Structures are given as C-alpha cells and as structure tokens.
C-alpha cells in the first residue's frame, strides 16, 4: 500500500506545487488557504477527502467512486486513477484560491 500512497502524494505535489503538506485527522493532505485534498488508506480502498463540488464535469468523472457522503473511495482491487486525483487536486486548489479561507475567532464568552 505504501507505493500507492507515495504515488498519490507525488501526483498531488506535481498538480499543486504551491500547496503546503499537512497532517490533519491523522491523514496526510495538502492545503492552500484551506484543505485542498486529504487521502488515507483503508483495508479495501484509498479514501480521498473532502467531496468534490462545483465542477460539473469533474463531479461526473468521480461519480463511480463517490461514497455515501460524497467522499471518494478508490478500490484497491482496481487501477488507481492517479490522473483523476491530480485533476481533483488542481480543481480544489483553484477553488481554494478563488475563495480564501475564513479566519476563525475564539469565543471568549466562556473563557
């Protein structure tokens, strides 16, 4: 499984070279203003998060891999679509650039 994860990481790095690598919820990922993409290995599939939204053509391309909440599941018994993962990263990165992250404020009422 390690070679698959390393190839996914390299694919995302090539697709979005300016993204910062991060680990969140014990998953590797990449972010710009917000999370661009995260991925994780499971027993029978590779999960890719968060769900793809906003690009109709891309949503149609990932539909066969969509899980119950829209997150993607790439079965390990089939060829992993690395080019599609790269495209997902590029689209999500562009969406992140178009809509900068929101800053969170701390509610001091309970401090």
Q: If you had to describe this structure to a student in words, what would you say it looks like?
A:
The chain is of the alpha+beta class. It has helices at 2-15, 56-62, 82-98, and strands at residues 20-24, 27-31, 35-41, 45-49, 72-75. Strands 1-2-3-4-5 form a five-stranded antiparallel beta sheet. The chain is globular.
- Sheet-strand content, in percent, reads 15-25%
Q: What helical percentage do the residues reach?
A: 25-40%
Number of strands: 5
Task: Tell me the distance between the termini.
Answer: 45 Å
- The strands making up the biggest β-sheet line up spatially as 1-2-3-4-5
**Structural class from helices and strands?**
alpha+beta
Order of helices and strands: HEEEEHEH
Please tally the helical runs, counting DSSP H or I stretches of 4 or more residues: 3
CA-based shape: globular
Mean pLDDT, all residues: 89
Low-confidence stretches: 103-111
Rg, Å, rounded: 15 Å
Major beta-sheet overview: 5 strands, antiparallel
Topology:
Elements: H1 2-15, E1 20-24, E2 27-31, E3 35-41, E4 45-49, H2 56-62, E5 72-75, H3 82-98
Antiparallel strand pairs: 1-2, 2-3, 3-4, 4-5
Key phrases:
111 residues; single chain; globular; 3 helices; 5-stranded antiparallel beta sheet; disordered C terminus
